[in-house]
Specification:
Length: about 100
Amino acid sequence: MQEPKSAKIIFRTDNELKQEAQNAFADMGLTLSQGLNLYLKEVVATGKIPFQVQTPAARLKAEAEEAEKLAAQGKLKTYTPSEYFAHARQIEKEAQHPHE
C-alpha cells in the first residue's frame, strides 16, 4: 500500500505560541506536526472544532451562569459587594502585616 503524499501547510503564529505548543506536544510524546495532524483528523472525523469557540463575553457569561448554579447548590460562597471589599481589605492587610 502506498503512503499518501505529504502536503505542506504554512500559516503564521507568534514564536511564543509555537514554542508553547511544541512543549505541550512534546510532553505528550508528539511533535508539533503530529499534534497538528491529530487536530486536523479530529476536525475531519467529527465535522467540528474539538473545543468550544466563544467570544470573551460569551465565556464570561457561561462562567457567571456556572457560578450562579454552584452558589444555588450551596457549593460556592457568595458575597455582597460590601462583604467582598471588606474581605479583600482584610486579605490585603494580612499580606502587608503577616505576623500581627
